[in-house]
Amino acid sequence: MQTVSISFFRFPSWRARLWVLGQMGAGQLAFRAMPEARFWKLCGSGTGEGFTPVPNTSVWAILTVWDDEVTARRMVGSAKIFKKWRAKSSENYTVFLTPTSVRGEWSGKVPFAAETPTKNSPLAALTRATIKPRTLRHFWRREPDISAAIGSDPNVLFKIGIGEVPWLHQVTFSIWPDAESMAAFARSPDGPHAKAIKAVRDGGWFKEELYARFAVTHATGTWEGRDPLAQPERSAA
Question: Which of 80, 102, 128, 164 can pair with 212 through a Cys bridge, CB separation 3.0 to 4.6 Å?
């Protein structure tokens, strides 16, 4: 059963941040020599709740697709790139996921293979878009409202905004305790998320987009000194 891992790292010093910036190139070479990794992305993050156009140079992420959870746990634990990033970081957190639905493409590919949803587990939502340059101003004008809504939602367990290229590529990732709370946020007709989606559709803001849902199967490490899944309190980057 396909497993997706998303690893988040916090780098405290400017020296460590410059090091990880250099890893954006070196890391690509490492993954190309790693046949177990079926798809991967190295990402930076935004400030605040993560959903802003201002980069947060202290938080970075690695998303990887593996054939199964055994391989995913083994490689995240032992592969040199993950070990190096953990050694340089002050904190790291990895979430292991089973895809349950996917629509759209990422870099021209469908990276996730959906499985039957797992019951009684937290759920994660991931959206990824390539924003058309001519619509950047309109998109980022909407983001503060969405960020504030996610940040104030008492149900969200974890949330962050990441991306491969600042401003042009946007990934939102959030974890929810159940499908009801996730749907309540996403589908509220008067909420900023629903209004933004309508604006995206009406204006044709995205060149490419992907929407995926996952069952959360396992997590390791801490974020802000705790495991967000073990203590259901809101967590931001």
Answer: 102
The full DSSP string for the chain is: --EEEEEEEE--SHHHHHHHHHHHHHHHHHHHT-TT-SEEEEEEEESTTS-SSSEEEEEEEEEEEESSHHHHHHHHHH-HHHHHHHHH-SEEEEEEEEEEEEEE-BTTB------PPPSSS-EEEEEEEEEPGGGHHHHHHHHHHHHHHHHH-TT--EEEEEESSTTTEEEEEEEESSHHHHHHHHH-TTSHHHHHHHHHHHHT-EEEEEEEEEEEEEEEE-BTTB-TTTS-S----
Chain mean pLDDT for the chain = 85
Angle made by CA atoms 185, 188, 189, in degrees to the nearest 5: 155
Q: What is this structure's pTM? A: 0.87
Residues 90-115 pLDDT 10s? 999 999 999 999 999 999 999 999 98
Q: For residue 196, what are the CA distances in angstroms to 19, 175, 205? A: 36, 20, 10
* Domains of the chain, each with CATH number or no CATH: 3-221 (3.30.70.100)
Please provide the DSSP assignment of 117-159 as one string: PPSSS-EEEEEEEEEPGGGHHHHHHHHHHHHHHHHH-TT--EE
Which pLDDT does position 181 carry in this prediction?
83
Closest of 59, 46, 234 to residue 139, by C-alpha:
46
Closest CA to 214 of 122, 152, 88, 87: 122
